[in-house]
Amino acid sequence: MGFISRVRDSASAAASDDLNKDRTSGDLQREYDGITRERAGGHNSLSSINAQNDIARELERRGR
Q: N or C: which end of the chain has fewer CB atoms below 10 A?
């Protein structure tokens, strides 16, 4: 069996509108930058990568 990759085109539950309605784009950008620093330091857990992708999709949805 081959590997099937599924690319999400929407944010996961972690970046849903309900969770982000009170978070500004600046808050999301700061969280994204924090994850970037952690990943640069060698902390590349799958959950942090997924969270960063979710934040990027949410910021893109907001037009940033």
A: N
Alpha carbons 52 and 64: distance in angstroms, whole number:
15
Type of residue at 49: I
User: According to the model, what pLDDT value does residue 43 have?
Assistant: 83
15 contacts 62 by C-beta, under 8 angstroms: no
Q: Which two tokens stand for residue 18?
A: 């309900």
With contact defined as beta carbons under 8 Å apart, do 64 and 30 qualify? no
What is the model's pLDDT at position 14?
A: 53
Q: DSSP string covering 1-64, please?
A: ---------S--GGG-HHHHTT--HHHHHHHHHHHHHHHHTT---HHHHHHHHHHHHHHHHTT-
